[in-house]
Each structure stands twice: as C-alpha cells, then as structure tokens.
Amino acid sequence: MRAWSRDVKKRLPRPITTAFRHKTAQRRTWRVNLGAMSAICALCFSQVPQGIAGPLPMLDAESRQQWQAVGRVNGAGFRNTSGCSGTLVAPDLVLTAAHCVTSDGRLWSERHFLAGWFRGEFTAHRVSKDIQIHPLYALTTGAPKFAYDIAMIRLLEPIERALLPPVDLLPRNAVSGSTGLLLGYQNTRPHALSGAAGCPRKPLRASKWVIYGCEVISGTSGGAVMVETQTGWKLGAVIVARQGAAGEALAVPVNDWIRDAVKEAQKREDLRK
Question: Where's the Peptidase S1 domain (predicted)?
C-alpha cells in the first residue's frame, strides 16, 4: 500500500476522456453497407476476450447484443469521436463518470445517451433531463477525488424495459469476485463497444476505489465493470480512470449514493404505471 501511495504522488490516476466536440445533433440513423459489415465481421471475436493485454478489443455481434445497456455518452451529435461511456441502470437513469459531464467544475447543460451504439446503429437514443454528480466530487482534490468521480444522467424520456432492460446493481453484501468484465467505448474505436472478461480485481486497503488489471484508454470513462454472480451478471463498479504505466482500470464500486439514485428512479417508474 505504501509503495502504491508513493506512486500516486508521482503520477495520479488519469481521467480517460477527452473534450467533447459540440456539433449539431443528427436525428437520423446511418446504415452500414454490406461491404463494411463484412470487414467488421472479419475483426469479430468469437467470445468476450479473456485476460487480454493492451486496450480492450472490440466485441463480436453476440456479445454486443448482450450488453446493449452500455452506450455512448456524447455532446450534441452522433459523429463525435471523443466522448464517454455510460450504463443504463433504470429506465430513465444512466450511470457514468462525473468528469464526463463537467467542465471546469460546471455541469454540461445537455448529454446524449446512445444505448447499444454500433457504427451508426443504436437500440435507443435519449437526451438528458437532469444531471447529478456525487456531492463530494467538487469538494475533493487529488487522488481521493476519484472515489467520487460518478454521475447520474436522468433521461428526458425513459427507455422502456420491453425495448432495453437496465442492468442490475451488485447487492450491497454480495461478493465482488476475483475478476470483472470491463465494457466501454474507446476513442480509438468510438463506434463499437469494446470489452474484456477475466480482468483481475485488485482491491486497495483503506480506499474507496478498486483496480482491475486490464488496460483502458480514453473514452472508457463511465464504462461498466460487470461481475458474474449466481443470479447472473451485475454491475459492480464504474470505470473512471487509468492507473500506472500499464494503464489499468481504476473503478468506483457501486455504493449507497448509486443505489439511492436507482431507488428513486424505481419510484418514478412505479408512478408512471
């Protein structure tokens, strides 16, 4: 722990997002021609890669279908090559990183969530109604700030469960497991979901974040760390930064602030019925 602390003083974990580009929103879906699809399929993986070295690889079609609740978080427009990732945790709520929705300490006025985004196609597109960041994010500096680098985007219109079920949170007392499945949209490949399973979990003593031993790069901020349990996959943490020379993922585990926000969203859903 002491050695890691000294390393933090030399090089703090770095947020893995770049500035958003502001463009006029495009309100149409682009179609991918068959030739392009053939080229894409030639690069597909037969399953979610295990224990990879280097940045997260692109998922194959079957894996993308399973994780459509993970999407891109953009400014205006669909063509952005810089942005963040986010995960649908309730019909009208997206979990992402706080630095993805702020600039110089101020909230962005509007974000777009594109669920299941893949080369111009998407399962659902919604605009933000309200954005909330963890209350301690703006009050904390240095390395401890990463523990609060989380935000909730409330959507103007809910995404119906029949269209896209949200992911479930890891229960408070559940075992996190020794590995995680990392998912996100990297800015080197912003129009396709990337991911890797079997990323070793490296908890840190007296810390409110955790390291996962797979490399992440810009754009993966706000991405999901999924944990396999006896009752299926659950969201265990949110990717917020990369740490050290290897660029390993630094993630904030699901906490009470996240759980409380999801409970409030469930109340809103009940009122809509």
Answer: 52-263
- By residue range, what is the domain housing residue 201? 61-271
pLDDT digits (tens, 9 = 90+) for 227-251: 999 999 999 999 999 998 999 999 9
- Asked whether residue 24 is assigned to any structural domain, the reply reads no
DSSP H/E element including 81 = none
Say whether 175 sits in a helix, a strand or coil: coil
**CATH no. for residue 260?**
2.40.10.120
pTM: 0.80
User: Cβ neighbours of residue 271 under 8 Å, at least 6 residues apart?
Assistant: none
Q: For the chain, what is the mean pLDDT? A: 81
